[in-house]
Amino acid sequence: MSFLRVRRLSAFYGSFQALFDVSLEASEGETVAVIGANGAGKTTCLRAIAGVLPVPAAAVCLAGDPVGGRPAHELVGRGVVMVPEGRRIFPSLTVEENLLVGAYRSRPGPWTLARVYDLFPILAARRRQPGPNLSGGEQQMLAIGRGLMANPRLLLLDEISLGLAPLIVRDLYRALRTIAGEGTTTLVVDQDVSQIMELAQRVYCLRKGAVSLEGRPAELTRARLAAAYFGV
Amino acid sequence: MPWVDTVLQGLLLGGLYALFATGLSLIFGVMRIVNLAHGDLSILAAFLAVVAVETLGLGAFAALVLVVPLMAALGYGLQMLVLNRLLGRGILPPILVTFGLSIIVQNTLLEIFSADSRRLDPGGIETASVSLGGQLAVGWFPLITLAVAVAILAGLQLLIGRLSLGRAFRATSDDQETAELMGIDNRRLYGLAMALSLAIVAVAGVFLGIRTTFTFASGPDRLLFAFEAVIIGGLGSLWGTLVGGAVLGIAQTVGARVSPGWGILTGHLVFLAVLLLRPQGLFAKARRVA
After folding, report:
1. Contact, B208 vs B214, CB < 8 A?
2. Which of A117, A136, A150, A226 is deepest in the core (most CB within 10 A)?
């Protein structure tokens, strides 16, 4: 049975409909990629799963329980943790304090301060510095580490390579493999298709708020991807 | 020597002002709400202490054991049942609602306790003093007030700087939506902040009632002095609040020494001077939570 099942999810910003009957699934321990152009609804989809947007209960099921529309802070207690687009590091907190806030409602699990520092050694070196002093890549590491501190069962990663240099993106994806190796179910949103196709076991492409393609990366040709991505 | 004495008395008065100001600046720091009923709630605490003293026969200090938890519970309830409903509707609704609350508290106190001025009797300590040599002497009670203010500020600093709850306060103040993604329930957190704020102002109200007489209408003045102490010290700095209280206290006692009618006015003038010359306050810091 799927650990995460999103069924016929529609989401609105006021009267604007951003998602149209999106359905997707992730099995326990699986890494699932959500790709698509700007404005395709990827972030909206993650925000709906994380409880930031109001959606019907049955639209999002976690291990069989309908949890759609539960508040985000409650979902964190059930192990749903989102690393938001743009990092959103707390500016008045140090690196270590940012990580500790991630553990505010921590569940038991493999991730501790020490393990996060193992994964991202640069954070250990900068633990006493204010969050905003970090570079973009370091801030992304901090945002991911902060999410891990909650010991997620389902980790939602939004636009993780946005605005970062290719070398840093490679490092981040290496870390994602380690995280997936702990058995964490992961939903990754990114515009950088090449990296994400190597990492994910299943891919969904969104276009104009609807799923335009799904499948296993090996089964998808570049031409089919391009068609689903751009609609040409 | 008389001037040294005046400044010393002002400094000790500043301890009381800092107590009033701390809760106000904590609430503003965590949730950007200005609680206009802050002063009246402190007077409510003083009246609660009067009731505890008169009906249970407690001493004025012992009454704190009852009044502080009671005010904390009131703060939690007020936030959860009333003020949380105003979240996300801009800055005006909380101002209007707390203004209304201020009027309700004043009139309820007038209805129950009449317009008579009251005082809390701590059993002699209010007149005891300790000699500092020469002609200098300071009262035990103002000294205790300052010590309590410093202890409360130090405790709050520890909470905000080191404890999980304090980190949650700061994170929520920085970015409420992201804090929610970390599992922080902002409504409950705001409830705890208001409980903490009213617990501190309860101490302030009881100490005020021991130091001087008060009536149902004493609240707004307390609010004004608290505002002035916060602004003089600089928003977001706890120790700045203590210094702000001290500056205000010294200005008032020095002014009153020059001419008895000038005390309050001098405090306001110093406040205005700080606003003109250093509007961010004396100890403004980047950190935004009180």
Report:
1. yes
2. A150
Region of A62 please: left (phi>0), alpha (psi -120 to 50) or beta: beta
Chain B: residue nearest A107 by CA?
A: B183
Assigned token pair, A71: 């508040």
B286, part of any domain: no
Q: Which two tokens mark B13?
A: 């008065």
Report the domain count for chain A.
1
User: CB under 8 Å to B224, separation ≥6 — which residues?
Assistant: B39
Residue B253 lies in a domain: yes
Question: Cβ(B14)–Cβ(B232) under 8 Å?
Answer: no
Read off the CATH number of the domain in which B154 is found.
Answer: 1.10.3470
The pTM of the full predicted model, rounded to 2 decimals, is 0.91
**CATH number of the domain that A63 lies in?**
3.40.50.300
Would the pLDDT of B186 be above 70? yes
pLDDT interval class at B290 (50, 70, 90):
very low
Given a cut of 90, whether residue B125 has pLDDT beyond it is no
Tokens of B242: 């203590």
Whether the ipTM is more than 0.90: the answer is yes
List chain A residues with CB under 8 Å of B178. Answer: 84, 88, 90
Which of chain A's residues have a Cβ under 8 Å away from the Cβ of B173? 92
Count up the domains in chain B and report the number.
1
Nearest residue to B144 (alpha-carbon basis) of B16, B58, B44, B22: B16
Check if B287 contacts A (Cβ < 8 Å): yes
Residues ≥6 apart with Cβ < 8 Å to B248 = B14, B17, B225, B228, B229, B232, B267, B270, B271
Show the domain range for A96. 4-230
Establish if A154 touches chain B: CB-CB under 8 angstroms: no
Neighbours of A216 (CB within 10 A): 11
Rounded CA separation B226/B23 (Å): 9
For residue A60, the model assigns a pLDDT of 95
Q: Dump pLDDT digits (tens) for A151-191.
A: 999 999 999 988 899 999 999 999 999 999 998 999 999 88
Quick one: B286 exposed, middle or buried, by C-beta within 10 A (0-12, 13-18, 19+)? Answer: exposed
* pLDDT value, residue A184: 93
Nearest CA-CA partner of B38 in B12, B64, B75, B11? B75
Count of C-beta atoms within a 10 Å radius of residue B136: 14
Domain assignment present for B250: yes
Nearest-CA distance from B191 to chain A in Å?
Answer: 16
The encoded tokens of residue B66 equal 């009852």
Based on its alpha-carbon atoms, the radius of gyration of chain A, rounded to whole angstroms, reads 17
Interval B233-242 mean pLDDT: 86
Pairing of strands A202-207, A31-36: parallel
Judge whether B47 lies within some domain.
Answer: yes
* Containing structural domain, residue B208: 2-123+135-277
Please list the residues that pair with A36 across neighbouring strands. Answer: A206
Strands A16-26 vs A4-13: parallel, antiparallel or unpaired: antiparallel
- Please answer yes or no on whether B179 and A101 come within 8 Å at the CB atom: yes
